[in-house]
Every structure is written in structure tokens, then in C-alpha cells.
Amino acid sequence: MSGIVYLWEVSSWRLLATWKAHCKGVSCLVFSNDNSLLFSGADDGTVMVWPLVRIVEKNEAEQSTVSAKPKPFLYKWSGHRASVTTILLSTGISNSLVVTSSLDQTCKVWSLGYGQLLQSFKLHAAIVSAVLHENRELYMGTTAGNIVNCVLDLPYISSSSIMTRALCSDGVAHGSSVNALALWEDGISLLSGSDDKFIRKWDIRTAGIVKEQLAKGPVTNLLIVPQGTVSAQCNGFSIQNPWTLQVPFSDSFNNSVEGFCEIPDPIVHLHKTFSKYKSSDPGHAYSVFCLDNHIIELQHESTQGALEMKINMLRERKVQACKTSQEYVKQIELLRALYSEIHH
């Protein structure tokens, strides 16, 4: 495996950059929530953090060939001793965290603001999948068929060891490796897929199985798209719509907070790097800027597609705004407690 990363613009399939990111094969890639950073994990156990604004600013001659010059990176984390399997990002304000897991059976928590390792703990088996629920509850799938849960001590990770527990009372969630985990839209359900060919839906409050479905082969990935549709990848086969969740729009934000602020637009818009291309060019209809214009055009036409796109966009913005507001409330409470301790 080469360790080379290829950065593409999906709307036009234009190659934006190519560079040598790792010494061994790349095992996972994740974009930050604002699309300004790219996180890459590799078989050599390293995790790299790349600022995209610096990656795509090079001239076009470097796009189709591997850049001879090393690309500028923000951080290089070398804490794992085996292949990195997952990279998860929290959405905090001043305490954004990055959680990484590996085949070396360890899970590590990093500070994105300072680039430092905050906490590390080890499980009984290799970790092959993980999801983060509400920025604090971590669920991990292992090669032994277990789903392990732990709570991260936010906003500050304590130096003491993190307590972990198995999701099931008997400790075994599947008969084989848990390759995929995904959180359901209702916030209380967890999906798991395994080499044993089963896709299971769990209630995280009771740790009980709500539903299960037998796939045609080992399940390697799970993806939940809007409106609750599930797509599962299993040994070359694709299962679409095994379950569909019907959630009333009014019930989607029961935990909303009043007085939330608007989330700013992403820092980096990749299409601006290629400003010589007009927004009306074929293939650019789904870049960030052109997507907004496309929604406006559809609204003028009063189409159902425009309404659905707008609702989905507003839903995501409101959820992010509510989470941001809740983080502010936590920070204020901590400051008040600290103030009281100082003056008493």
C-alpha cells in the first residue's frame, strides 16, 4: 500500500491534489464538520491532520502527480502501534476532541485545539468500529463480537482511567467481529453489523435488541441517510431500505435550547480555488455555492425537491445550533462554579 491520498471534487470528479500522506496504506479518512480539515489514519498507526486550504492552494501541475514537496500538516499523532480503524470528531466550542481507535486494542482521545493526547485506554480485543453519541458516549465494536460503551468526561478529560462496560449483559453482541456501528436518528438506537451476517438495532437505554436482519454476507459498513433510510454493505452486496423510520417533524428537536446562535458557513469552499470555472459549468451544480443557488432556483419553481432540501438543511443547522448553545451553557456553569470557589 502506498499511503498516497487523492483529493477529488465529487461534483466534477476533478483531482484537486495528490500527496504522500503516510509511509504505509491509508486506513481511514474523515473531514471536519466545517470541511476545513482532513484527518487521515494509516496502517503505520499514525494520524495526520491536514488543513485543506493549504493542500489545494498549489498550482494545477501538482494535481495529477504526487507532490514531491511534503504537504503542510497541522498535527502528526503517533500514539497507536497498529492500523488506525476509526477517527471520530466532537463538536465542542473550545474543547473539540478527536477520538481514534486501532487494531492495537487502544482508544485515544486528543485535543484538537492543542494537539495533545488527553487520554488513552485499552480494551480486551482489537477495535474495528466506533461511534460517538452526543459528544460524550463512546460505543466501540471489537473483533471479539463485543460492543463496549464508555462515557468521556467532558469538557475536560480526567487523568484517571475511563470506565468501560459491555452493551450486553453477557458481553457478546454478535457471534463475530463487529465491523460497523451507526446511530439511529431517534438518538436512542444503535445499529451494528458483523461478520456473522446480522444487522441489529439496539435500544441504548435498555441494551436490548429491537430488530435484527440477516444479510447475504458479512456486514462491512452501515450508513444512515436522511429520513431514516439504512444502507448496508455486506460482502459485495448492498441492502437498501431494510427499515424506514417515520418521525414527525415537530418531535425532531425535543432537546432544543432557546436563544441559539447561527452556525457560520464553512471556512473553506473548495470551488473558489478554481474560480475560472463558472458556476453554471456541468458538474459544479453541487458545490457549496452552487448548491445554495440551486435551492433558490427550485424554490422559485415551487418544487417538492426544493422544499425537502430546505427542510433537511434547516434541520441540520438547528441541531448544530442547539448543540453549540448547550456547550455555551456548560461553559458558563463551569465558570460560575469556579468563580464561587475563588470568592469563598
Topology overview:
Layout lengths: L3 E6 L4 E7 L5 E6 L5 E6 L4 E5 H4 L19 E3 L6 E6 L7 E6 L3 E6 L5 E6 L4 E7 L3 E6 L4 E5 L12 E3 L11 E6 L5 E6 L3 E6 L4 E7 L4 E7 L3 E6 L2 E4 L47 H13 L3 H40 L1
Antiparallel strand pairs: 1-2, 3-4, 4-5, 5-6, 7-8, 8-9, 9-10, 11-12, 12-13, 13-14, 15-16, 16-17, 17-18, 19-20, 20-21
Provide a concise account of the structure shown.
The protein has 344 residues and is of the alpha+beta class. It contains three helices and 21 strands.
Please give a structural write-up.
- The chain is α+β, with helices and mostly antiparallel strands.
- The chain has 2 domains: 4-245, YVTN repeat-like/Quinoprotein amine dehydrogenase (Methylamine Dehydrogenase, Chain H, 7 Propeller); 250-343, no CATH class.
- The chain is 17% helix and 35% strand.
- It has 3 helices and 21 strands.
- A 4-stranded antiparallel β-sheet has the order 3-4-5-6.
- Helix 2 (288-300) crosses helix 3.
- It is globular.
- Residues 241-288 have low confidence and may be disordered.
Task: Give a quick set of tags describing it.
single chain, 344 residues, alpha+beta, Methylamine Dehydrogenase, Chain H, 2 domains, 4-stranded antiparallel sheet, 3 helices, 21 strands, globular
CATH fold group of the largest domain: Methylamine Dehydrogenase, Chain H
CATH class descriptor name of the largest domain: Mainly Beta
Provide the number of structural domains: 2
- The geometry reads as globular
- The number of strands is 21
Tell me the name of the CATH homologous superfamily of the largest domain: YVTN repeat-like/Quinoprotein amine dehydrogenase
Can you give the helix content as a percent range?
Answer: 10-25%
Order of the strands making up the biggest sheet: 3-4-5-6
List SSEs in N-to-C order: EEEEEHEEEEEEEEEEEEEEEEHH
Radius of gyration of CA atoms, rounded to a whole number: 21 Å
Q: How many angstroms separate the termini?
A: 60 Å
| CATH-scheme architecture of the largest domain | 7 Propeller
The mean pLDDT is 75
Keywords: Repeat, WD repeat
WD repeats: 19-50, 77-120, 171-212
Pfam families: WD40 (PF00400)
GO biological process, one term: DNA-templated DNA replication
